[in-house]
């Protein structure tokens, strides 16, 4: 049972591994419902590994972690799809099926996550596409959309099951600055509607402009702007 006062993410005494290599150790942090948090750090510092652990693509071997009401340590293969229904995941590369329309891309996820009622599926699909500003795009194929529009479809797809948190790994990394600004604003709108966001980014401008909480991977540790003062760094050295 998830109570509304529970944090969406809660991590204690955890270490993050890639095989036998420890990437981050002694992690202790939580993310509250509706919080917006940046995740920063130099290339190879562990941002993606942390996100992968949170969506159970990497096993949590040491420590405790809960996300969207699921305990990550000891989670079974059978339960991972159920966990992922509670999360929205957005990557830098859009990962849409190129040979399927926008509607078919969304339908695929809905069917895979247990939706059956065709009327409800259609109205939810329209709702999420409208929500990302792509109300008229359902019959288009990915190649007929710009990079920014494709990313909006990916965000719509991530929102289908009303996740309590969106995990975003460099979601604006492949887009030019103006387009990425629009995508960032979309994340802010989604956040204002109540979804927590954990966003890995190298975009120094965003950090300067929007004073959200920052988690920084540095020297195998995770620094938290809520409890520690630290330098953000320059964009090449985030
Ligand atoms: N699949 C993998 N197998 C083994 N080691 C890996 C794998 N992926 C990443 N690593 C290693 O884990 C460490 C953390 O990498 P990670 O991708 O989490 O960093 P990152 O902060 O997300 O980097 P970037 O900003 O470049 O995306 C690095 O030392 C990297 O080489």
TrEMBL record:
PROSITE patterns, sorted: ABC_TRANSPORTER_1, ABC_TRANSPORTER_2
SMART domains: AAA
Sequence ranges assigned to domain ABC transporter in this UniProt record: 9-235
Molecular-function annotations in GO: ATP binding; ATP hydrolysis activity; transmembrane transporter activity
SUPFAM superfamilies: P-loop containing nucleoside triphosphate hydrolases
GO biological process, one term: cell division
One Pfam family here: ABC_tran
One GO location term (cellular component): plasma membrane
Record keywords, A-Z: ATP-binding, Cell cycle, Cell division, Nucleotide-binding
PANTHER family the UniProt entry points to: CELL DIVISION ATP-BINDING PROTEIN FTSE, IMPORT ATP-BINDING PROTEIN
Record-stated family: Belongs to the ABC transporter superfamily.
Function in brief: Part of the ABC transporter FtsEX involved in cellular division. Important for assembly or stability of the septal ring.
Name this polypeptide is given: Cell division ATP-binding protein FtsE
